[in-house]
Amino acid sequence: MSSSPVAGRPATVKDSEIAAEQRRVDEAYARLEEMRAEAQAMIKEGYRQALAGTKGSLVDRDAMVHQAALRAQALDVADDGLVFGRLDLATGETRYVGRIGVRTREHESMVIDWRAPAAEAFYRATPEDPRGVVRRRVLHTRGHAVVDLEDDLLDPSAADSLTIVGDGAFIASLARTREGAMRDIVATIQREQDEVIRAPADGTVLVRGAPGTGKTAVALHRVAYLLFRHRRRFGSRGVLVVGPNRRFTAYIERVLPSLGEGSAALRSLGDLVDGVSATVHDPPDLARLKGSGAMVAVLRRAIADQPPGAPDELRVVHAGVVVRLGRPQLDKIRAALHRRSVGSVNTARRRVADALLDALWERYVDTGGTEPEPGAPVQGELALWEGLLADSGLAALDPDGPERPSSAADRSSRESFVKNVRGQRAFADFLTAWWPIRRPLDVLHSLGERARLRRAAGRDLDRPHADLLAGAWAETLSGPSPTLSYQDVALLDEIDALLGPPPRPSRKAPTEEDPYVVDGVNILTGEAVADDWEPEMRELTSAVERLERARRVDDEVTDTRPEYAHIVVDEAQDLSPMQWRMLGRRGRQATWTIVEDPAQSAWEDLDEARRAMDAALGGSASKRRGRKPPPRRARHEYELTTNYRNTTEIAAVSARVLELALPGARPARAVRSSGEEPVIRVVPPDALRAAAREAVETLLTQVEGTIGVIVPQPDGDWDEQEHKALAEGFPERVQVLDVLDAKGLEFDAAVICAPEVVATQSPRGLRVLYVAVSRATQRLTVLTADPTWELVLTGPA
Ligand SMILES: Nc1ncnc2c1ncn2[C@@H]1O[C@H](COP(=O)(O)OP(=O)(O)OP(=O)(O)O)[C@@H](O)[C@H]1O
């Protein structure tokens, strides 16, 4: 393929340079084609070996096919924009830089992978520090065709024979139409960004920067870099990329695959816990409560409280004596058990059973249940026993059961007491109801009960706040399909960590002789003995009861929480302390890349969140008793300073909001001016919707790509219905979304509705507004009912 000068126009120097580069690019594609054929041949060869049929060859085949398939995939990804850069060095050497490395059959380098050390100068060389580079050339391609060039002359003294072309193609490329998904920036990574991308792999990399400085883009390219340079370390235990919400993860999901990296896990904060998913943001006051570190103590107390439906009394029978534990004793036992069961509540039933049996035995002894003299007559006791059984309705349980001891010695031994009692259905039923295997969602739901939440609140929440929370959960978590908020998900993870994993089935199949198997179910684990177990006729157990008892909690609940080798947190300024704890559990051994802009934070107590972040990054080992805290991991801090998203005109409006939100804060430097001034209009509140639709109509004719209509957080006026009404009849490239969902996104044009409402919806409303006004790449319209806002947004920055 080759590019030709535009028809009718004489060839320019640039045209001939482009034609020369096209020849080199064509050669690279031809070689890529051969490499693809080689990978396909390897896949075929793998299958051929499988037909040979030996066991060894099957293993070889799997390895071969897997490797070849990965290779073929990487080669496919490189097909678009394979080569994008060229370096001319002072030594006379020329290097091409591209998405992947390409070598000739003789193993000579044709194209260097952008992540390789030899490509570093492409991103780092400057006139002050040319690193041996005379000319850096960026090739702009479309498909396989070179369409434009842009040169930087880094060392004029050595550039005698080199042609320099270019007229700001990079800056022009920033104005490209946004089609709704983020794209990679490999060809144009800037020096300060490259320093972050290639920062040391150990410890924590903390990146700060104003909106549009490329924080997200840089974090994603860093993932691709880490996986390329440290494949073993990060490839096997995995990399997690966390974004604020689903819309955002959908927006960035194509970047890593376009860099040939499909292996990193991409999750929003609402999707980190398997089996549950957040769909709503809490209103600010609730989010602050739910996200606060005080919830740790509240949840601990909630779990240690009596579960809903737990019985208040335990009654068993031994040797004719009804032995009873009432609520006060049971509460004491529960409290002691919880002190020893943090993190293993769901697997503590053996401990629970032992504690109950101990208490029952003590009680039995106290009430004179043992024979003072072995061998003494037992007649009186037996009579008493029969009487009590009849009185308490227990007589029907098992008239011939094993609990009728045959001798006084039996009756008085602890061993026979324990054996007898734990085999009783009354005991098994009590154990499963009093210490049920719990699911995090059930625990959270139970806190919708006001009295329960007040008990759990202790001194950590005052009454109005406890009642506010209980009211919210009663409303959102009842019914068959509870609605979870982003903050709820972190609380579920906290509860899950306190409860611990559900009991696992024992390695060897349990048999009916096991002491804790009652009615065919191991009451410690909830595990059924065997599928063909049949209750005897005298058993009262119904199929439903048995099923309930056999229920294992792994339905809908995380069984194992994945841990990662590296975690990237985007929009980190918005994480609550509880969300940091959730992430910390997934990265106890991890290194981190944290990306944030404190000026965009909707979180009020940033100090508390910071402490939670430090704890998460430090790993949890420090909390283990008797161990020295691990040394604080190295932290590398970076700041990005150039705004690549907004035009200078839009950046001026966002700088005015920044000055209100955070007086004295420094905005990033925007580099592209379009001459299009933002439109700021005052409209009466009841005409706002019509004005927004009108603004969209106009913008549809002005920009080709996405248009975001950003409205206040949902309340009476700005609910789902309003979103629908605003979007009605518009093409898909128009999106209506609330301000919190706009985090991290960008649009060709943005319409901001009611900034005065956004600014006052929460104590951090001005920062939320700052996020909104910094989303647009080309056009911005702001519609306000308050004339003072017109002055604020158009006044001097
Ligand atoms: N070096 C670059 N070359 C080309 N485009 C770039 C470059 N750096 C950033 N961009 C573009 O600028 C835009 C903003 O980048 P990005 O979303 O990563 O910024 P951000 O700092 O995360 O912003 P925010 O704080 O608003 O989330 C994106 O369209 C991105 O592709």
UniProtKB/TrEMBL annotation:
Protein name, UniProt field: DNA helicase IV
One of the GO biological process terms: recombinational repair
Q: Name one GO cellular component term.
A: cytosol
User: Record-annotated residues binding ATP?
Assistant: 209-216
Pfam families in UniProt:
AAA_19, UvrD_C_2
Q: Which UniProt keywords apply?
A: ATP-binding, Coiled coil, Helicase, Hydrolase, Nucleotide-binding
Molecular-function GO term, any one: ATP binding
Q: Where is this region: Disordered?
A: 395-415, 615-634
